[in-house]
């Protein structure tokens, strides 16, 4: 029964989860923490990790793998999550699993929609841009992860075919422009990245031995980091 610790710091929400398995692929959630803050720090993350493992009655050395949401998302958040996961893998001599953040978001909602729906998780990428991908309700990817600028013609091809569910913190941009379309759906309950569904997908990845090269692994930033220049002082 593999014991897998999962981390998600793709956005301002920092989350950890601990899963075990029953049988081959079914998973049992032993515990999870979600911290809603403006900034994720490595200190916050390591505290949540130690607490969840201890309170579940285990030691870090008993973990079988570490899973992390690889992105896309916040540059700083992903860097913190991946560096923490890699540090644990090296210290404990455990394998690393990496899960696409948007795929894990789609996993949260896919059982709630009919098979003729398309799922579009979105993460805010500033201004009118979002990170997004398209999935069917079986969890299969229909359009790969991209950075997309939203306008009135966005997703026309898909909306002409089937109902599309837009969700995540980037969906508000889309709702303002596409909310009037008969096939555009926007859940009223906020849906955000979570280590809980990262862990569910990590169970499957573990069974398939889909491990990363820990030393070489980098977050899926999708775009190059762009630093904001500080404003000059007026004197």
Automatic annotation (TrEMBL):
Catalytic activity of the protein: L-threonylcarbamoyladenylate + adenosine(37) in tRNA = N(6)-L-threonylcarbamoyladenosine(37) in tRNA + AMP + H(+)
CDD domains hit by this protein: ASKHA_NBD_TsaB (cd24032)
Root EC class: transferase
EC number(s) recorded for this UniProt protein: 2.3.1.234
Domain Gcp-like, first and last residues per copy: 38-152
Protein name: N(6)-L-threonylcarbamoyladenine synthase
Short name of one Pfam family: TsaD
Alphabetized InterPro entries for the sequence: ATPase_NBD, Gcp-like_dom, KAE1/TsaD, T6A_TsaB
GO-annotated biological processes: proteolysis; tRNA threonylcarbamoyladenosine modification
A cellular-component GO term for this protein: cytosol
Single Gene Ontology MF annotation: tRNA N(6)-L-threonylcarbamoyladenine synthase activity
NCBIfam families: T6A_YeaZ
Keywords (A to Z) from UniProt: Acyltransferase, Iron, Metal-binding, Transferase, tRNA processing
Lineage, opening ranks: Bacteria, Pseudomonadati, Bacteroidota, Cytophagia, Cytophagales
């Amino acid at each position: 029964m593999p014991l897998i610790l999962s981390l998600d710091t793709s956005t301002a929400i920092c989350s950890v989860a601990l899963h075990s398995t029953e049988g081959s692929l079914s998973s049992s959630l032993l515990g999870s923490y979600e911290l809603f803050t403006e900034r994720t720090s490595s200190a916050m993350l390591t505290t949540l990790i130690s607490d969840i493992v201890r309170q579940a009655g285990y030691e870090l050395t008993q973990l079988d793998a570490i899973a992390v949401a690889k992105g896309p998302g916040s540059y700083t958040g992903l860097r913190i999550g991946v560096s923490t996961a890699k540090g644990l893998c090296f210290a404990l001599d455990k394998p690393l699993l990496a899960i696409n953040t948007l795929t894990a978001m789609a996993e949260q909602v896919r059982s709630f929609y009919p098979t003729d729906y398309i799922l579009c998780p979105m993460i805010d990428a500033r201004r009118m841009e979002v990170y997004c991908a398209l999935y069917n309700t079986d969890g299969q990817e229909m359009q790969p992860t991209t950075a997309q600028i939203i306008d009135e013609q966005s997703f026309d091809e898909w909306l002409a075919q089937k109902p599309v569910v837009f969700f995540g913190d980037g969906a508000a941009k889309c709702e303002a422009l596409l909310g009037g379309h008969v096939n555009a759906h926007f859940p009223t309950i906020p849906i955000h990245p979570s280590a809980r569904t990262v862990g569910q997908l990590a169970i499957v990845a573990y069974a398939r031995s889909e491990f990363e090269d820990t030393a070489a692994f980098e977050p899926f930033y999708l775009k190059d980091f762009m630093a904001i220049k500080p404003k000059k002082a007026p004197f």
